Each structure stands twice: as C-alpha cells, then as structure tokens.
C-alpha cells in the first residue's frame, strides 16, 4: 500500500492518488497537495510568510 507524502510547500499530508508531483531534469521531485500551494511556490513565496502553512503557524510567526 502506498504511503502518504508531505506537501513541499505547506507541509500537509497528501493522500495516495491526489496532489501533483513534478520531476525536474536533474531528478529532484516536488510534491504539492493543491494548486494553491503549486502557484504560491511558482511565484517564489516563502511558506513561513503564509499564515495557512505549517511553517507560518509556528512559534516564530509574527503578527503585523
């Protein structure tokens, strides 16, 4: 049985058969759970700056 993967942007679990996996020419793979994560990563945004990601909800998050 295939295991779950983690989204490389937000850190959420990805169920088998869902999400998107990109394979680069050098062999690196990147997994995204949704188009929201995919688009934010493509725009060059940092997960720690987004409040809805696992990294953005950490202790070091500052409110502006």
How would you describe the overall organization of this protein?
12% of the residues lie in helices and 19% in strands. With 64 residues, it is α+β, with helices and mostly antiparallel strands. It has a domain at 7-49: Ribosomal Protein L24e, Chain: T (Roll), CATH 2.30.170. It is globular. The termini are far apart.
Structure, briefly:
The chain has 1 helix and 4 strands, in the order ββββα.
Helix content estimate: 10-25%
CATH architecture of the domain at 7-49: Roll
Structural class: alpha+beta
Total helical elements = 1
Beta content comes to: 15-25%
What is the succession of H and E elements?
A: EEEEH
Mean pLDDT: 87
CATH topology-level name of the domain at 7-49: Ribosomal Protein L24e, Chain: T
Shape: globular
CATH level 1 class label of the domain at 7-49? Mainly Beta
CATH superfamily (homologous) name of the domain at 7-49: Ribosomal protein L24
The side-by-side strand order for the widest beta sheet comes to 1-2
| DSSP summary, beta strand count | 4
The unreliable regions are none
Q: Quote the distance from N terminus to C terminus.
A: 44 Å
Main pleated sheet: 2 strands, antiparallel
In angstroms, what is the radius of gyration? 13 Å
């Amino acid at each position: 049985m295939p295991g779950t993967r983690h989204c490389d942007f937000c850190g959420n679990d990805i169920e088998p058969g869902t999400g998107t996996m990109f394979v680069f020419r050098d062999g690196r793979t990147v997994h995204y759970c949704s188009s929201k994560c995919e688009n934010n990563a493509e725009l060059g945004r940092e997960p720690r700056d987004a409040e809805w990601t696992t990294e953005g909800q950490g202790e070091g998050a500052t409110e502006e």
